[in-house]
Write a structure and sequence with these properties.
β21 (385-389) and β22 (397-402) form a beta hairpin. Strands 11, 12, 15, 16, 17, 20, 21, 22, 23 and 24 form a 10-stranded mixed beta sheet that branches. Strands 3-2-4-7-1-13-14-18-19 form a 9-stranded mixed beta sheet. The protein has a 3-stranded mixed beta sheet with strand order 8-10-9, with no helix packed on it. It has 2 domains: 42-290, Rossmann fold, CATH 3.40.50; 318-429, no CATH class. With 430 residues, it is an alpha+beta fold. The protein is built from 10 helices and 24 strands. The radius of gyration is 21 Å and the shape is globular. It starts with 41 loop residues before the first strand and ends with a strand. α3 runs parallel beside α5 (168-178) and α7 (204-210) packs parallel to α9. It has helices spanning 55-64, 97-110, 132-139, 151-158, 168-178, 188-191, 204-210, 243-246, 249-259, 369-379, and strands spanning 42-46, 71-75, 115-118, 143-146, 159-160, 165-166, 182-186, 198-201, 213-214, 224-226, 238-240, 263-267, 272-276, 284-288, 292-297, 302-305, 310-321, 325-327, 332-334, 340-341, 385-389, 397-402, 408-411, 419-429.
């Protein structure tokens, strides 16, 4: 059956050709209905586990915030507050919003920012989101960084209750983004940038088996989402993080299909998706880092359910690596300079994969399992499709990867596939 459509859902032909990306801006409209400035800023979204020594990502954020004059506001409300941290008094073992805020502020200064300050908002200080003094502090910043933790804590600390409207502080950050500031985040700090149906938790197998539900659940395996969404800085697709490291491709595909989204930006660890002109017709993206970012395209996908369970056909997997660019409006990829189309040279079969989503129940599982099979298929001449399965059964799901016409792989070494464009994905129970 066709995917359910959200209002305004777009459907574009899948292009796999390179293009020159336009870098001019156009007015955008925010959730509040107010038009954005034509100076629209940028996003730097990291899939989690951002390493202290990742100078390229920290440097990108600082450069976009003004370089040597950058002033970074650090928000860590996704962390537990001091009142819930038993080690709050120990600077060596603490892990709470204030402690983590100081940690990131120090990192940004060490990487070259002129100043970096913790913005004191968390579950212990929700009122600060409406404080004129904190608003003034935020107004003095040229860029912002949202740390990791639980994205739902950002919802409860920076949005106003059931109305889901901006607090004073969030309204200022939104305005500054529209006027040219950079907004960055890692893990939960990247997921909160999403618009409607932001993911709140869940595992791939349980998501495929049981589907998604609106809400936030104590059961960490249950696939949940928030219909009202996060902050809505990036609305051209859903956002997921830690994708390959936690095997989240399955949950991302199921959530998008259930909620009528035709795109997911599936981010990987220690790697950034840099978004220029978010929310405009000129929205473009670039990947920076050692891993990558997947674009899951459901614009032609179809779902079905029978006695065995849920199935999906016609989804496409595009995997972008360092330096690759992506035009979100036209679904077109410009591989990084130095990459060339891959001509498969190997004749060996794709290795068997019986845990495609890296199940937490499998003590012998391997991260990046989905990506590993996709790349192995791209690099061999022996077969045009490969089948992987979930570790769990009842039902066991198969994932079929197929090199259909239009699929391309790009390489820097002539033998291995780094960038993948338009690999067909089907999921079915058995």
């Amino acid at each position: 059956m066709p995917l359910p459509s959200r209002p305004g859902r777009r459907s574009f032909a899948a292009g796999c050709a390179a293009l020159v990306l336009a870098l001019t801006s156009a007015p955008a409209v925010h959730a509040t209905g107010a038009p954005a400035s034509s100076r629209t800023g940028s996003l730097v979204l990291v899939g989690g586990a951002l390493k202290d020594d990742n100078a390229r990502v920290y440097g990108e954020i600082i450069k976009r915030a003004g370089g040597a004059g950058a002033r970074i506001g650090v928000l860590t409300a996704a962390s537990v507050p001091e009142s819930q941290d038993p080690n709050a008094d120990d600077p060596d073992t603490c892990s709470n919003s204030a402690c983590n805020g100081a940690y990131y502020a120090d990192l940004f200064r060490r990487h070259g920012a002129a100043d970096a300050q913790w913005i004191p908002i968390d579950l212990d200080h929700i009122a600060n989101a409406e404080s004129d003094a904190v608003v003034a502090q935020v107004n003095s910043m040229t860029g912002f960084f949202f740390g990791g933790g639980d994205q739902y804590r950002y919802v409860t600390s920076l949005l106003r209750g059931a109305e889901h409207t901006d607090s004073k502080v969030l309204a200022v950050i939104r305005t500054k983004l529209a006027e040219g500031a950079v907004v960055a985040g890692s893990s939960a700090g990247a997921q909160i940038a999403a618009g409607p149906d932001m993911v709140t938790g869940g595992e791939s197998y349980e998501g495929l088996r049981d589907g998604s539900a609106a809400g936030y659940f104590d059961d960490p395996t249950r696939l949940g989402h928030l219909p009202e969404g996060g902050f809505g800085f990036l609305r051209s697709g859903l956002v997921d993080t830690h994708t390959g490291a936690y095997g989240r491709e399955g949950r991302a595909l199921r959530l998008a299909a259930d909620t009528g989204h035709d795109t997911v930006y599936a981010l990987e660890e220690n790697t950034a998706l840099v978004v220029d002109h978010p929310g405009t017709s000129h929205e473009t993206m670039r990947v920076i880092g050692p891993n990558g970012a997947a674009v899951l395209d459901l614009s032609r996908a179809r779902t079905g359910t029978d006695a065995r369970g849920w199935s999906l056909k016609g989804a496409r997997y595009t995997y972008l690596t360092d330096g690759d660019r992506y035009d979100a409006r036209h679904r077109l990829v410009l591989p990084a300079a130095g990459k060339r189309p891959l001509t498969p040279r190997g004749f060996g079969p794709v290795p068997a994969n019986t845990d495609v989503f890296f199940s937490v129940a499998n003590p012998s599982g391997a991260p990046y399992s989905f990506r590993t099979t996709a790349r192995a298929l791209a690099a061999t001449r022996a077969q045009n499709s490969a089948v992987a399965t979930t570790y769990e059964s009842g039902p066991r799901f198969t994932v079929t990867f197929t090199k259909k016409p239009g699929f391309l792989a790009w390489t820097t070494d002539r033998t291995s596939a780094q960038t993948l464009i338009g690999l067909d994905i089907a999921i079915a129970p058995r």
